[in-house]
Amino acid sequence: MSTAPAPSSRDLRHPASEDIRLEAVLHALSDPMRLQIVRELAVGRDELTCSQFALPVTKSTSTHHFRVLREAGVIRQCYRGTAKMNGLRRQELDDLFPGLLDALLAAADRQAVRLGEG
Amino acid sequence: MSTAPAPSSRDLRHPASEDIRLEAVLHALSDPMRLQIVRELAVGRDELTCSQFALPVTKSTSTHHFRVLREAGVIRQCYRGTAKMNGLRRQELDDLFPGLLDALLAAADRQAVRLGEG
DNA sequence: CGCTTCGTACGATAGCCATCGTAGTACGTC
DNA sequence: GACGTACTACGATGGCTATCGTACGAAGCG
């Protein structure tokens, strides 16, 4: 018992797979900033630190958006040194809602191209 | 000029296909009430009147939800006598975001079963 | 121990939104 | 015209949320 981990501000709570709600996922992705984060996470297979995203908002607001994504069950976060790593919960989302994440990402890509970003 | 249609409160404005935004669609579907409406619309192939939905809210609130769905481009509404008919814009959504609507409906079904509704 | 980097916590603010109730409009029928 | 049905419009309200700034904490590096 000597290694009981003291609760810390660095403990990150994630919903269990079975607690992920479709409505919460959709709400999380209905914000342009958060949809952008998820799109960037989806292209690389590796995790990214929060600061690797060039979001047009302050750091406070970024923190907020990452937390919304985490609490909805879309991403998983953990600390590595001073950095905070972010990764898509792809496997769990695919198990819960087969095909949904791919369809969402494809839809976002398609719209980005259509609106002249691509 | 005798047949110039006077603008009326019964004119319903719908976004054109190219003005439908993924974020707006996701936001529209992130409300449990509206997701339920869309699920019920999806099972039947016919249009339904507003009053055919047994929603646990007042009629005012229903009107609000149907309008959000229409303005997001998810449903198409038109009057038939005193009734207002509602239909999914399935073809247009499939053209814009192939596979998305099906994946969303499948995800909603799956979650309903998982949560013990089915 | 300082210093830097990275992210958090907290409070404030402004805007959006789900809900309701009441009053009203449009249509069909008698 | 009178009545009923179906839905709307408007205003209110309470809650949520995206944004910011400032101050702080945790880890690494010299």
Automatic annotation (TrEMBL), chains A, B:
Annotated InterPro entries: ArsR-like_HTH (IPR011991), HTH_ArsR_DNA-bd_dom (IPR001845), HTH_MetalResp_TranReg (IPR051081), WH-like_DNA-bd_sf (IPR036388), WH_DNA-bd_sf (IPR036390)
Keyword DNA-binding: yes
Boundaries of every HTH arsR-type domain copy: 14-108
Keywords: DNA-binding, Transcription, Transcription regulation
UniProt keyword Transmembrane present: no
UniProt name for this protein: Helix-turn-helix domain-containing protein
UniProt lineage: Bacteria, Bacillati, Actinomycetota, Actinomycetes, Kitasatosporales
